[in-house]
Design goal:
- By secondary structure, the protein is mainly alpha-helical.
- The chain contains 19 helices and 5 strands.
- It has a 3-stranded antiparallel beta sheet.
- Helix 1 runs antiparallel to helix 7.
- The protein starts with 5 loop residues before the first strand and ends with a helix.
Length: about 500
């Protein structure tokens, strides 16, 4: 029994070359619409598809990222605003007063309480998110990526619906611990780190070797496009029609990625054993597989370079998470930005990342052709400079100059993802990016909690202290990246 689909020779997308591909059904009829494709000498097994017989490509994943991350990020902004309104209402019993941005700058003590409760939410999210990521990593490598990606999308949708309910004015008196239902629902399905783990492992699997950094950069950019859309619409809509209406709109937005993944995404894996099912791979016994994969012996200096790139990534991500996690309170509540201006600020940053960074990568790959490590070194250095510039009040437009510099960190992320791929095999991508997601779940959230606590402690002395710590973390990241670059250079000369 053979499928009728035959993909002609040639390059079907800018990112993946699938030649001489002929899809055939399993001889025993176990799985319909399966087959094989070849990319960079690796045979990838095409999993079951529903109605669209599209060749494996990262583009559907980019589209799904935009929708899912937009809903996720809007949820995060709405939760912070809801927490502030609840805390303010408990103290002043006047909801219209609490939504006045001028009023909020006169009461910094309310921000401290918001930070405390948001940290509670973050701490509760860590264990569930980390456990699910570890359990689903082998699923990505052995079965496919659809289910691991659909789970956080579903969690985002359910948590958006719950947030829309508790954001209604009639429920403003509900106690603050009711937000923990939101925390549990969103994290029990994997949340943001699972989206990263699944999307990066999928894009890395279908990417050409010579185009890896560009493909991974576009994947990162698609996430930031979602952030950009979330920032672009959230502030103006809240300012014009209120928080409850925005929450209901986001409940609808959160449903958009589901049909994209179910219908358009062609799932692939390197595992030829089609008899694998979730009962075989989603087990507690596989929880340590990601750690074993990262620390196992590898050829040459690959193990050391892989661990150094994780150190570099951890530090720069902690800095980024801490800066973005405090940006709402720092700019809106301390600097007096309106929600609309705050949306403009974040949208400007997102535009720089989603347009300038992929464009820089493309120009470098096509014309300049520098070493990837050179791009990473420049990008991390610019991020450190940006964090230093933002809190310098005597410098005109310091906030806007600073964000222009540290928005180039997407270049560093793209290079880091490419180095991760070069240090491991294609059947390890799920495990590698599950470990990456653990860093997101633990160091990202704990770093955000710690930097939020620092911001709260230094609010009345110097509210820009947390940005100085972000700059320090970025300098540590730069040091680790220099080390791994020297290792790569030494290995190149020795060969």
């Amino acid at each position: 029994m053979s499928a009728d689909t035959d993909y002609s020779k040639g390059e079907l997308s800018a990112d993946t070359d699938y030649s001489n591909r002929e899809l055939s059904a399993d001889a025993d009829g176990l799985i319909a619409n399966t087959g094989e494709c070849d990319t960079d000498g690796e045979v990838l097994v095409i999993k079951q598809r529903w109605c669209c017989h599209l060749p494996p490509s990262p583009y559907p994943m980019y589209l799904a990222n935009v929708f899912c991350i937009a809903a996720y990020y809007i949820n995060s902004l709405l939760l912070q605003d809801l927490l502030y309104n609840k805390i303010c209402y408990q103290k002043f019993q006047n909801l219209s007063l609490c939504t006045d941005s001028t009023f909020s700058t006169k009461h910094p003590e309310l921000q401290e309480v918001v930070v405390k409760w948001y940290n509670y939410h973050s701490a509760l999210s860590i264990p569930l998110t980390m456990l699910l990521n570890l359990m689903l990593s082998s699923y990505c490598d052995k079965i496919g990526h659809k289910l691991p990606y659909l789970l956080p999308c579903l969690g985002t949708a359910l948590s958006a619906v719950y947030l829309a309910v508790i954001a209604s004015p009639q429920f403003i008196t509900w106690p603050l611990p009711t937000i923990f239902v939101f925390s549990i629902v969103s994290s029990a399905f994997g949340s943001f780190p699972t989206i990263l783990m699944t999307s990066f492992s999928y894009c890395g699997l279908v990417a050409r070797v010579d185009n890896r950094s560009l493909v991974m950069g576009l994947c990162e950019a698609s996430i930031l496009v979602g952030v950009f859309i979330g920032n672009l619409i959230t502030g103006p809509i809240i300012d014009s029609i209120g928080l409850p209406s925005m929450a209901y709109i986001n409940a609808g937005i959160s449903l958009l990625p589901l049909p994209v993944v179910l219908i358009l995404l062609t799932d692939v894996t390197t595992e030829a054993n089609l008899s694998n099912n979730w009962r075989n791979v989603v087990k507690l016994a596989h929880i340590l597989d990601a750690f074993k994969c990262v620390f196992k012996k590898r050829e040459g200096s690959k193990r050391l370079r892989l661990n150094l790139v994780f150190v570099s990534y951890t530090c720069i991500f902690m800095a980024s998470a801490g800066a973005s996690g405090n940006s709402f309170l720092y700019l809106v509540k301390s600097k007096g930005f309106s929600l609309t201006l705050y949306s403009v600020f974040n949208s400007y940053s997102a535009i720089l990342k989603t347009i300038s960074c992929p464009l820089i990568l493309y120009v470098c790959k096509r014309f300049i052709k520098p070493q990837e490590h050179t791009i990473g070194l420049v990008a991390i250095s610019c991020a450190a400079i940006g964090y230093i510039i933002v809190p310098i009040d005597i410098l005109p437009y310091s906030v806007w100059i600073g964000v222009t510099f540290f928005s180039l960190d997407l270049l560093a992320y793209a290079v880091i993802r490419s180095i991760q791929l070069s240090c491991c095999e294609k059947n390890e991508l799920g495990l590698i990016f599950a470990y990456d997601a653990i860093i997101q779940s633990t160091f990202g959230l704990t770093g955000s909690i710690g930097i939020k606590a620092l911001y709260s402690a230094t609010l009345t002395t110097w509210n820009g202290m947390y940005l100085a710590i972000c700059a320090l973390l970025t300098i540590i990241s730069l040091s680790a990246f220099v080390w791994l670059s020297l290792l790569k250079l030494r290995e190149k000369f020795s060969n």
